[in-house]
Design goal:
Elements lengths: L3 E8 L3 E7 L3 H10 L2 E3 L5 E3 L4 H17 L2 E9 L1 H11 L5 E6 L18 H8 L4 E7 L4 E7 L6 E5 L18 E3 L3 H41 L25 H24 L11 H22 L6 H17 L1 H10 L42 E6 L3 E6 L5 H10 L2 E3 L7 E3 L6 H14 L4 E3 L19 H14 L38
Parallel strand pairs: 1-5, 11-15
Antiparallel strand pairs: 1-2, 2-4, 3-4, 6-7, 7-8, 8-9, 9-10, 11-12, 12-14, 13-14
Helix pairs in contact: 3-5, 5-6, 5-9, 6-7, 6-8, 7-8
Length: about 525
């Protein structure tokens, strides 16, 4: 086995990218520097020469030097992960920044384990498989950081999330969202992240915040109960306490610990309070209690800001200002938690099944717009796929109602087509400027080879599949001439023959055809 490995990939902006990996990655870096590569983004090496001929020579020298040094050079079938992350980020809602991180040494990827907030396949892959590099997608407005990594053993990507800094230890967190696997095409990948992963992530964040606030209040309440201090009576359901906690319990150490625990509430409760809608819940009487919690929270934030700015505050003054806030939250904790749970983001609705195609009209032919290919009545009933061109989306394709939706989607994405946003059932070829016509014709050929009936425009259909190809015959020209002579000598049975008055002296000679018969030459040795 090679001591080190160099993985070659391609970036549309930086050209050939070389990534050294394994424990002896330093030796691989030395070979790269000697063969014309220079250090680029996130520890990846790129060719310093943009000329194609020079680049080919550099790659040849790299392979030669690497073999001499016992280093394995492997070419990746995927594009540079930085390009994939940027293409996906442009299609996500909001403003996202991307960053690539390379884990040349196998130990380095272990740094992801305490940061990764995931209960799915991504966390398992980081612990058990080799992940030499990954990309971060960060939305600073929503404090969300996604992790994009190549899926081991599959042609796709794993998408998960990193835990926000305020969450602390998240290992084995029951609220952690499950990572998803997305395809290699940015359109379908961004759609899956937007419609599936981000809503699940928001629900997990909401539940995590509720859990942290409830845990902090519970710790303070349990220690207060252990001190056997008198508690403020809450009265019947919906009744509010009168001036809760104006007299702080004895023990400065307890009040200091209570404030430190309550800072968790100060960090996470504001977002939860913003989502609470008591008037729309089953407990509209909680509105007054939530108002008191908001007022108390603002007082706690003011104390924290004063301490951060260095405002002189004695221990007694600190306790006098913070304990009424903590006592108010302890008194109304049950009301707050039930309102926060009721305000949890709802899961996205399940996708509706596609409507059945309309019945074919008995008379006439009414063409539908070209974007609704699945319902086009001018296609043959047995057609499975349709390919064509579109002035905006380039080379497009669709599958008809005669094929299951999940199967048609799988086949088209396998042929490098991606769904067109806003047009259900329509797919477009990715990167149509990169030899798009040939790739579209190749997709038509692949699907027909699998036994599916494909309708395509003349540009994408050089060999129409309406009839099976005839085998070439070596004597086609003489046989064609014989058939023409025989057909010309025999009267057509559709015309009624009239008895001649006199026998013709000679047989009429058929006129010579004005066209030149096509000549079919069989494959073989020429004369």
């Amino acid at each position: 086995m090679a001591e080190a490995q160099i993985t070659l990939t391609y970036s549309r902006t930086m050209g050939v990218i070389a990534i050294p990996t394994s424990k002896q990655y330093k030796s691989a870096e030395g070979v790269l520097r000697k063969t014309g590569f220079r250090l680029g983004e996130a520890g990846a090496y790129r060719l310093s020469d943009s000329d194609e001929v020079t680049a080919r020579g550099s790659l040849a020298r790299l392979v030669q030097r690497a073999r001499a040094s016992g280093i394995e050079v492997a070419a990746s079938s995927r594009r540079f992960i930085g390009d994939a992350a940027r293409d996906i980020a442009r299609l996500l809602p909001g403003q996202w920044n991307t960053e690539v991180e390379i884990y040349s040494h196998p130990v380095w990827q272990g740094d992801l384990i305490p940061l990764l907030w995931d209960s799915g396949e991504l966390a398992h892959a980081v612990r058990t498989a080799r992940i030499p590099y990954a990309a971060y997608l960060t939305n600073w407005a929503g404090d969300t950081t996604l992790l994009l990594a190549e899926c081991p053993g599959r042609f796709g990507y794993l998408v998960g999330a990193l835990a926000p800094a305020a969450y602390g230890e998240v290992d084995d967190d029951p609220h952690a969202p499950r990572s998803i696997i997305v395809g290699p095409f940015p359109g379908s990948a961004a759609q899956a992240i937007t419609e599936r992963y981000l809503p699940a992530y928001e629900r997990a964040v909401h539940e995590r915040r509720i859990t942290m606030v409830a845990k902090a209040l519970s710790l303070i309440q349990s220690e207060l109960d252990a001190r056997r201090e008198p508690r403020t009576a809450t009265g019947a359901e919906g009744a509010l306490p009168e001036q809760p906690g104006r007299c702080a319990p004895a023990g400065d150490a307890f009040l200091d610990r209570a404030w430190r625990e309550f800072l968790t509430v100060v960090d996470h409760a504001p977002v939860l309070l913003d989502r609470c809608r008591p008037a729309a819940s089953a407990w509209p009487q909680d509105a007054k209690a939530l108002g008191q919690l908001v007022t108390a929270l603002l007082a706690a934030e003011q104390v924290r800001d004063d301490l951060a700015r260095g405002v002189p505050l004695s221990r007694a003054d600190h306790h006098q200002r913070t304990w009424p806030v903590i006592a108010t939250w302890l008194a109304h904790s049950d009301r707050f938690l039930r309102q926060a749970r009721a305000a949890a983001p709802s899961p996205p609705p399940a996708p509706a099944l596609p409507a059945p195609p309309p019945p074919r009209p008995a008379r006439g032919r009414t063409r539908t717009p070209p974007l609704t290919v699945r319902k086009a009545p001018f296609l043959d009933p047995g057609t499975h796929f349709a390919f064509g061109t579109h002035p905006e989306h380039g080379f497009v394709a669709a599958f008809t109602a005669s094929l299951p939706a999940h199967l048609g989607h799988w086949f088209l994405t396998r042929e490098q087509f991606e769904p067109v946003p806003g047009y259900p059932g329509l797919f477009r070829l990715t990167e149509p400027g990169r030899d798009g016509a040939r790739r579209a014709r190749h997709a038509v050929t692949d699907l027909r080879a699998l036994g599916y009936t494909v309708s395509a425009d003349i540009r994408l259909n050089p060999n129409p599949p309406s009839r099976s190809p005839r085998p070439a015959r070596p004597h086609a020209l003489p046989e064609r001439r014989a058939r023409l002579a025989q057909a010309a000598a025999v009267r057509s049975p559709q015309h009624r023959a009239t008895p001649p008055t006199t026998a013709p002296a000679t047989r009429p000679i058929p006129p010579k055809p004005a066209y030149a018969p096509a000549v079919h030459l069989s494959a073989g040795r020429s004369r």
